[in-house]
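Appendix C reproduces, verbatim, an entry submitted by the partner laboratory led by Prof. M.T., so that reviewers can inspect both the input and the predicted structure.
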Amino acid sequence: MSGLIISVSGLRGIVGETLTPDVAVRFVAAFASKMPSGPILVGRDGRSSGAMLSQAILSALRASGRECVDCDVIATPTLGVLVRDRNAAGAVQISASHNPPPYNGIKLFGPEGRVLDAGRGAAIRDAYFSGEAAWCSFDRIGMVHPCDDVHQAHLDKVLATVDVTAIRTAKHRVLLDSNHGAGGILGKRLLEALACDIVMVGETPDGHFSHVPEPTAENLQNIATRVKDENCSVGFCQDPDADRLALIDADGRYIGEEFTVALCVQHALRKWTRAKASETDPKSDAAIVINGATSGMSERLAADAGVQSHRSAVGEANVADKMIATKAIYGGEGNGGPIDPNVGYVRDSFVGMAQVLDLMTKTGRSLAMLADALPQLFIYKTKAEVSSDRLPKLFESLIAAHPDASADTGDGLRLAWNDKWLLVRGSNTEPIVRLIAEAETMQEAKRLCESAAKFL
């Protein structure tokens, strides 16, 4: 899709075509008009268009009477931590995540240091469409302030979740591929703090991506080869704004993003189990939260530990909402986005790196051994062209065809059995429906999608 996409979580478009300085100014002016009093932070990933958009956005905020803090290049989860650390009213992150270089986008944060929930996001989206702004008089124009060290607060919080001494003793050799996005700055500091022997790839945050920015197996073939050739115990691969993390084992095998969350959940469950055994303030009603499209590996791990699992609608804000509501000890999305509430309610690749290393260290197992010991499940994904007005009838037919499944229509249609599930979900931006299934064999997952597609 090349058009400007505006949702409750922000916007995304092609710079100079659908995303112009004028669009950025009007969108951020609407944001400023709805936020509580206080300074607003502005950050960006490494894309070449980010500095230009940052200047436009800072001008819009100043013209709205806001004091601004220019964080320059900063990872998305780091910006979330900084909002709380600086008692800011909110933040604007300039990033198009894993989209190609012509794209950029805007992601909005509230004072809690997390992406805006659906209600507040919708209010700002509507304010943008109606042209709302709160421009100030000449004597109330805000100032822009620099930020001395944008990373330290986040680094401290991540390190507090792991056994730093044990990891430092292990002397892991690690490859970090930041692909010229925002993750290399803090990523290097984190791995240095953990005394890792680091092979850095794409450290400079200039947006000159060395490979397609989404960290999938196809896009990371050369990186996977290098992990093996460099004799690294693990390869960490970030997306441009560093809220997603893919894993590669010592043999150059792409472990993937779904496993990132599952391994981090396993790490959290181990800590919770130890705390419960020692009765040092355990949560007897502990829970984890994943979204409806995330692998059930985490659910099975939680069940084995006697911990509840909850499914939210797809989207980081929805996962965070349910985590807060259920007081979950952990959460995340299967696109490589672990969410540790002890750090912040934002997907976080740095949390993933530290906690995977901690898990490897504490168990004495390689990444390959840890991944192979997880519940073996297989996900199949496909899509088809379907207009949104046909979806209700499609959902009714699928529910009737599968009376043995539990049905949830909170976010599309999710049919669940004890050993498999199927998600049928319409796109918010295209006339298509996405079908995702998971089962104990790839054949069964594919069969679920194909049988559902017959109703289209």
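The first strand starts at residue 5 and ends at 7. Additional entries are available on request from the coordinating office.
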